Amino acid sequence: MSTITPAPAATGAAEPTAQVFKYVRPDMPEGPLVGKFVVRLARTDRVLANLQVLKNGGETNLHTHHHLDGFWMVLKGQARFYGEGDEVVAELKAMEGVLIPRHFKYWFESVGDEVLEILQIEASDIPLPTGQPLERQDFAPRTNATRNITVIEGRVSAADYGQRHKLDMSA
To answer: Which of 118, 142, 121, 115 is nearest to 46 (CA)?
Structure first.
């Protein structure tokens, strides 16, 4: 029988800590929403969890992530995911989801009358950069929802917990 001895921790490496988070649905403005809300729930150097909130028509553009596998699950509302050529990949209602593997070209939109609340969990095969948007390759122009994103910090221990800021996606 062999035993595995774990490698010693890297010198100066931070100790891992649990991240407590809380989701509070953002107040939705009256009328059509231009943009979307992203509540940051948790993040490590390899995994992130967000909850996105969109009104009807809060679509994204055709894009892919070369280093991220994405798990998407509708909590409330309805979503429609598309692949290349606007082929419908999935029509999702509450408690339904889809896994989008890296390199898969996709986009999605909120459909129906109810506000969409969709859980996004991404796993990366390389370390995630901090303080920067996720890597992505666009195949269509960005939409209003993709350019106008309000981020709300949901990690309870974060210094900016509950605060909102606009994510600059103009590039």
So the answer is: 121
